[in-house]
Amino acid sequence: MARPEKSVEDYLVERVEFCGGQAAKWDVRGHRGRVDRVVMLPCGEMARHWHVYLVELKAGGKKPRPEQLREHARLRALGFEVIVIDTKEQVDELTATYMDH
Q1: Mean pLDDT across the stretch 63-78?
Q2: Which residues, 6 or more positions from 79, have their beta carbon under 8 angstroms from its beta carbon?
């Protein structure tokens, strides 16, 4: 059965790669609440620095489950930027600053 957020996830991967970045699947078996993707986008022409986002993908209008919210809070406390995305427009907002590369 296809996941409802699959088209948004595929679009995220496509747009991030177009920007010269990577959207790696974060597959942590047995860890409930983990985010779906680690998005790395280059910062500057030389790409010596990278912006790293931990991305939770949801079906349109759906909200993260309680265990996901706890994991997001834990990751944010460690200094990571966690983003919940449920539309292609939100993907465009994330990648907009990188489209000039």
Answers
A1: 95
A2: none
Calpha distance 76→21 (Å, rounded): 22
* Contact criterion met (CB below 8 Å) for 5 and 86: yes
**Cα separation of 62 and 101, whole Å?**
32
- 6-98: CATH number: 3.40.1350.10
3 state SS of 36:
coil
Looking up tokens 């993907």, which residue turns up? 91
Q: pTM score, two decimals? A: 0.85
Axis crossing angle, helix 88-95 with helix 6-18, rounded to the nearest 10: 20
Separation of alpha carbons 20 and 29, rounded Å: 28
Model confidence pLDDT, tens digit, residues 31-48:
778 999 999 998 866 657
Break the chain down into helix, strand, coil percent, rounded to 5.
35, 25, 40
